[in-house]
Amino acid sequence: MTTPHAVPITVPSTKKVLMLQQNGGANAYLQHNLIGSGFQGPDIMLRIKMCLKSGIESEIDWALVTLSQISCTSPSLVNLEKSRIIGDELINFFKKPFQILVEAKAMNITPDIMSRSLDSLLTLRNLAQDLVNQQWLSQSKTLKRYLIDAVKFYIYWFYSAKDKPQSLRAYHDQFREGLNYVIDVLDPLSCYYVDNTKNDPLFNQLLVLLNSTDDKYLLIGIIKSLTHLLFLKKGDSESEKEKDGEKEENEVITTKCIDALEDAHLSKILNYLLVSDNELVFVSLSFIKEYLLSEAIHPLSNHSMSESQSLRLGKLLQLHGSKAGAQILMKALPSLIISGLPLISPADVSSMPAPTLSKRSQYVSVPSVLPDLSKQLYDIIVRFPEPLRATTWLRCCYEPFSGPQTTEAHPESSDTIPGEVTQISLWKAYEKQFEEVWQSSKNQPNSEFPPLLPAVDFIKNVSSAFPNSEAMVVNIPSENPDQPSKKKFIIKGIQPRQFVVNIDVGNYEALKRNPSPSSDANSESNPGVSDLPVGHVDIDKFHHSIDYVNDIILSSSLKKDSKSVSAINLISHDILSYIIQVLFKRPDSKYLQDIFRVYNYWLPEVLYANPSLLDAGFIELDWLAFLL
């Protein structure tokens, strides 16, 4: 009998050996020594290059689809500076349909041509987000030329009333997708297209597209590209300037693309400041700032940069026309400066706390029905953890009692005894108030609201909520002398309120020190409450209200480098500060000051509630002079 042998756990190499052994060892030598055995083949990028060179349509389609996938998932694998053939082929396949359209041979465009063009454009769009590839693509004049041709065609196709070739209608959706990709490509590449002339075809085509579309995604890309195209190259060397007869460093060519902007273009961008969309507002503000601070010389200026900037500011504000631009900026910029900042609402800060009159009588009728929390106050308290929720509810709905203790109800009141509540009524009122919590948690725990405090712990917590209160057991004599006296479990020192108060007032009244009635009555320095004159103000409460308002105001602390501050706040401040500095100090600026005053009447109240806006420099102090 043969003794069995243990076979170890197999791994791929072991499996291969066992398979050969089971085959009697046939071809074992050949399997191990075949030419190319163990070689994985060319890497993915080499294969893509070979496919693009092959001219075989199926291989080209595979290469373009694979490139689009790689550019999306692993764009760092594609370096156009080291693999120029990939960049050249992508541009060639992208431009193919537009070459055919320029030659007026729309019938020759096939689905394969459109598909390859769109795949190539998508890959270029993804690769253009990488800095190294941006620099390579920006140097391609062919790419820029056909990007311009693409924009022209898309304007004609989507925004022109002219007849379109029937053969191209099947590609409408692909044209829509291609337009988005072209704008995405132009966004980073336009940073490298500097010193553009007034007749620059790309700039002017983007202006046409700006006036034609209302698509948010396109508008953001268009305005960003226009902003980039306003960039100027640094000044030439002194030797070149001397050759051109230029003497001042800030003198540049006057035929810049910034002068191609018309009132309609500026008005449309200004109007986006009134739209509640942060992305659109941000790109519009960036464009306006670049437009106002551009160092390009205006054709009507005497080679003066400051005069050129002043002329463009007047054009932007439309000072010699409808002045609509001035109204939009004076209305929008102050609001944008403080938008999104954690500010205190002026409604939460009263200008003068209302005085509270002192009590002139120790007796206050006790309501028989406990007041209910308002919905706003309930929504806050119900989410508190225990015992904070129980403590806060007690202080809002009950008040401490400091008058003379009595065991009888007042003749003009209900049966409720002042300064005393039964423990069972207190618990039932609390349970009824928060019925939503314990009803919803019967079957399973409620993740939204913490569970209620148990009855025993709730009663013990009353003395924490009101330090001057205490739980007591009172013996009530029975009407029948043969029967034993009854026990009554009460809380002494609190009573229901007439009206619910807010959390701050409840905390103050519960924790303030109350002198005992006996000491007050017998003290010569502290006259009885009945001796107070009519209209006497409770000074302690008044000072507490003043301190509360001051604490609210001082709690807001803003700095320009805090996380809550956005680029919108900072750019809006820069633009408004520039406008006020240049125009508001002129003798003829009264109209602008009036507009600023009309639209920003709310600003003093916001500054009163948030003085840190002045301290941090969001609002300049001299701006307030124009509100008077």
UniProtKB/TrEMBL annotation:
One of its GO terms (molecular function) is DNA binding. Residues 390-498 form the RFX-type winged-helix domain. Keywords: Chromatin regulator, Nucleus, Transcription, Transcription regulation. One of its GO terms (cellular component) is RSC-type complex. The keyword ATP-binding does not apply. It comes from the Eukaryota. The keyword Iron does not apply. One of its GO terms (biological process) is chromatin organization. PANTHER family: AT-RICH INTERACTIVE DOMAIN-CONTAINING PROTEIN 2. This is Piso0_002079 protein.
